């Protein structure tokens, strides 16, 4: 018998998943990866270099392919990069799409960005966000 938080599945859950959309894709992907004990591949960390420079597409694709190949038991990625889309789709079993209301997306991004700017949290390739970056 299953408890209230348990569900009996007739099929195994996919273990190679891309999450895309806006307003929570990285948080959701990270939570799924943690729950399923899978590698979380954060695309922003691959795409961005120090100084918010964008990594050349060939280098980013090579890095992503290396991470995928080193995760044969599965991975979750927070997809949103157009030039990595084909590589991601060739390697996943399932895609989760977030379609949140615009007001939810804007509120979540504003809250996250202000917190990161205040705390100087390191994100995306060792960079940190600033207040000026978001308002100007």
How would you characterize this protein structure?
With 136 residues, the protein is an alpha/beta fold. It contains six helices and eight strands; from the N terminus they run E-H-E-H-E-E-H-E-H-E-H-E-E-H. The chain has helices spanning 25-36, 43-47, 57-69, 85-91, 102-119, 131-135, and strands at residues 16-21, 39-41, 48-49, 53-54, 75-78, 94-98, 122-123, 127-128.
Task: Provide the descriptors you would attach to this structure in a database record.
four-stranded parallel beta sheet, 6 helices, 136 residues, 8 strands, alpha/beta, two-stranded antiparallel ribbon
Q: What is the β-strand count? A: 8
Q: Mind describing the biggest β-sheet? A: 4 strands, parallel
Computed structural class? alpha/beta
Q: What is the typical, i.e. mean, pLDDT?
A: 87
H/E series, N to C? Answer: EHEHEEHEHEHEEH
Shape: globular
* Strand coverage percent: 15-25%
Q: Strand sequence of the main sheet, in spatial order?
A: 2-5-1-6
Q: How is the secondary structure organized here?
A:
Elements lengths: L15 E6 L3 H12 L2 E3 L1 H5 E2 L3 E2 L2 H13 L5 E4 L6 H7 L2 E5 L3 H18 L2 E2 L3 E2 L2 H5 L1
Parallel strand pairs: 1-5, 1-6, 2-5
Antiparallel strand pairs: 3-4, 7-8
